[in-house]
Amino acid sequence: MRDDIKINDRAAALADQLVERLEKIVDPDVELDIYNLGLIYEINLDEMGHCQVVMTFTDTACDCAESLPIEVVDSLKQIEGIETVSVKVTWSPAWKITRISRFGRIFLGISPR
Q1: d(CA 109, CA 64)
Q2: What's the pLDDT at 62?
Q3: Where are the domains of the chain?
Q4: Which InterPro entries match (predicted)?
Q5: pLDDT for 37-53, tens place per residue?
Q6: Class of domain 6-95
Q7: What is the pLDDT of residues 8-22, one digit of tens each?
Q8: Angle at the Cα of 83 (from 77 to 85), degrees rounded to 5?
Q9: Beta strand ranges found along 13-82 (DSSP E)
Q10: Which of 34, 71, 94, 96 is the most buried (most CB within 10 A)?
Q11: Assessment of whether the complete model's pTM goes beyond 0.85
């Protein structure tokens, strides 16, 4: 799991599965997955199996602001131990290009540093 994503212990136990699912959800405007793009800020899983994801978008006018949260919910609910999922969209802190992972930078042709 990325160091810049706040994650509680219950969610951390499922980190590999969470990353695998999030890497399959692609922001159509940038053509990079939401995990490597750095759109995920926080993941918490409670004892009842409810997973809350805090995420943002690259821009307030992002065309995918409605569709991506639905994809996150549908995808994460497929993980055993996650019963329900909610997505909270935040604009603070604002997304910055520095949130793109090294892999994402290479994929997009941006200097990996």
Answers
A1: 22
A2: 80
A3: 6-95
A4: Fe-S_Maturation_MIP18, FSCA_dom_sf, MIP18-like
A5: 999 999 999 999 999 99
A6: alpha beta
A7: 999 999 999 999 999
A8: 60
A9: 26-27, 32-33, 40-45, 50-55
A10: 34
A11: yes
Structure tokens at 79: 């993980």
* Closest to 79 (Cα-Cα) out of 26, 23, 11, 32: 11
What distance in Å separates the CA atoms of residue 35 and residue 99, rounded to the nearest whole number? 10
The first and second tokens of residue 108, run together, are 């997009």
**Contact yes or no for 24/68 (Cβ under 8 A):** no
- Whether a cis peptide bond, with omega within 30° of 0, leads into 93 is yes
Tokens of 76: 């994460």
| 70: its two tokens | 């639905």
Smallest CA-to-CA distance from 59 within 95, 6, 107, 109 is with 95
Q: Which two structure tokens, joined as six digits, stand for 88? A: 């909270």
DSSP bridge partners of 23 = none
Q: Are 98 and 4 contacting, i.e. CB atoms less than 8 angstroms apart?
A: no
The SS3 call for residue 84 is strand
For tokens 């520095």, name the residue. Answer: 98
The answer to whether 36 and 19 have CB atoms below 8 angstroms apart is no
